[in-house]
Amino acid sequence: MLRSTPLPPEAALTGRARALAYPEHTAAGLAALNGAIPAASALALTPEALKAEAIRRAGGPVDFGPAPLDEPLSVLCRSLNEEVELHALGRLQVFNQLAGLLTMRLRFEDLWRRHPEILDQPVERPIVVIGLPRSGTTILHRLLSRDPAKRSSPFWEQVAPLPDGDPTAPQPDPDPRLVRMRQSLDMLDKVVPDLKLMHELTADQPDEDISLLIFAFASLQFEWSYRVPSYSRWHQAFDHTEGYRYFRRVLQTLQWLRGGERWVLKAPQHLEQLKPLLSVFPDAILVQTHRDPVPAIISLASLTTYGGRRYYDHPNPHAVGADMASIVERLLRKGVEDRPEDEGRFVDIQFTDLIADPLSCVRRIYAVAGDALSSEAASAMQAWIDDNRQGKHGGHEYAAEDFGLDAGDLRRRLGFYQERFSIPVDRRFAV
After folding, report:
1. Helix (H) or strand (E) segment spanning residue 173
2. What number of other Cβ atoms are within 10 A of residue 4's Cβ?
3. So what's the pLDDT on residue 223?
4. 188: exposed, middle or buried (C-beta count within 10 Å: 0-12, 13-18, 19+)?
5. What is the pLDDT of residue 428?
6. For the purposes of burial, counting CB atoms within 10 Å of the CB of 383, is it exposed (0-12), middle (13-18) or buried (19 or more)?
7. What single DSSP character describes residue 422?
8. Nearest 10 degrees: Cα torsion 239, 242, 245, 250
9. Sign of torsion, CA 79 321 134 303?
10. To which H or E segment does residue 390 belong?
11. What three-state secondary structure class fits 2?
12. Cis (ω within 30 of 0) for the bond into 61?
């Protein structure tokens, strides 16, 4: 996986860790791995090759715009080529993901040039769900999105924000992007069938903003997915204010195309980008979910290591565990350090309260946001709750030792956060 971090000996791995490091692929997974070999061997992960492919796919536009591009793309490509060992399918997926985002960026710039009125769209008082990963952000985001008066971006739109062909032309029903996403998720379920136990991806429900932040490299998506150390260091040191301005332009475009006004957004990455976020969205209402960070880190390590089989022959559970602990600590420290003194714009939601009584948590949020919870919205939310009970697809088991982590060490490192927000200790991971 990482050239600099060898996989631990099998004897040093727990049973669960060995299963993650030496994955037994499904028949569909093996077919995808083997089928990628011919195409992947001809691909060059270089800025020049990716830009050329994007221009070819866009079929006309050649202006990528002034937002951050050349420096982050060069650093990312260098990290991918020198620091990680992608298998053939991983290389093919990375190439298509990067070429796809560059293609979409060409199309955005072309659309804004032809329709500058798009960038006059108001994006006012968004409700932004923040909080560490695995702390209920997805549950809360999808619950809030059931309100017809709110605008969220379904996963199919996040992955392909612009329609096929001319964005201003009437679109078929159902949208071809939705159809493709359903097909892709069906295949994903065949390749990584346990993913839904950890994080269910649904074509028509919203997911993380990281998919809409990638176009100006203001997203943690590459760090989460690819494990790219040099790029991660660049990302941490860079001021992403311009990337968040680009994110706002993307939201304006989605409004212009499909309507909606009051956005509900979500991403744990916003915790370390509060300054850029509030600079670009100064009237945002911020909803921070809180959970004991120890099980959150271990759960995240499990999800990330399992997903790593899409890119690597042997995902390294110990390396991923160390990375996840570092990233979560980083997010939480920045979230505490950069949280403004104006607490009136924040709503703090404990994970235990969210699971026990989600609608009460929604009412608290609406009170701060100045919204009324309509009976229609409340009914839609209750229906979603009834259909999405915890454990719907089965249980997700994990332990600190699976990822080379020590719960006591994690608790000492993250005590500042638990004390700051009076977060109860999960008894399963008490020290």
Report:
1. none
2. 9
3. 92
4. middle
5. 80
6. exposed
7. T
8. -110
9. positive
10. none
11. strand
12. no
**Residue 392 pLDDT:** 53
8 A C-beta contact, residue 380 and residue 147: yes
Q: Phi/psi of residue 228, each to 5°?
A: -115, 95
- The band of 201, judged by pLDDT with boundaries at 50, 70 and 90, is confident
Residue with tokens 């979230």: 335
Residue written as token pair 């359903």:
182
pLDDT tens digits, one per residue of 282-308 = 999 999 999 999 999 999 999 999 999
At 153, the amino acid letter reads S
Contact 320, 229 (CB under 8 A): no
CA dist 225 and 272 (Å) reads 18
* Gyration radius (Cα) of the chain, Å: 21
Question: % helix / strand / coil in the chain, to the nearest 5?
Answer: 60, 5, 35
Residue in the structure block whose two tokens are 């040039």: 113
Determine the 3-state secondary structure of 171 from DSSP. coil
Structure tokens at 70: 């050349």
The first and second tokens of residue 68, run together, are 């951050």
Per-residue pLDDT, 393? 43
Residues 274, 339 contacting (CB under 8 angstroms): yes
Q: Phi, psi at residue 317, to the nearest 5°?
A: -60, -40
Question: For residue 176, which amino acid is it?
Answer: P
For tokens 């994690």, name the residue: 410
Percent of the chain with pLDDT over 70: 98
**Whose CA is closest to 300, among 289, 310, 308, 311?**
308
Structure token pair of residue 31 = 């077919």
- Please choose, from the candidates 223, 219, 267, 210, the residue with its C-alpha nearest in 3D space to the C-alpha of residue 240: 219
Sheet of 262-266: strands edge to edge? Answer: 150-151, 262-266, 127-131, 285-290, 346-350
Task: Return the closest-CA partner of residue 78 out of 289, 234, 283.
Answer: 234
pLDDT tens sequence across 340-381: 887 789 999 999 999 999 999 999 999 999 999 999 999 999
Q: By three-state DSSP, how is residue 350 classified? A: strand
State the amino acid at position 20 in one-letter form: L
Q: What is the pLDDT of residues 54-81, one digit of tens each?
A: 999 999 999 999 999 999 999 999 999 9
Query: Angle at Cα 68 formed by Cα 64 and Cα 71, nearest 5°?
Result: 105
Which residues contact residue 108 at a Cβ distance below 8 angstroms, ignoring those fewer than 6 apart? 65, 161, 162, 215, 249, 250, 253
For each of the domains in the chain, give its residue range(s) and CATH number, in order of start. 10-429 (3.40.50.300)
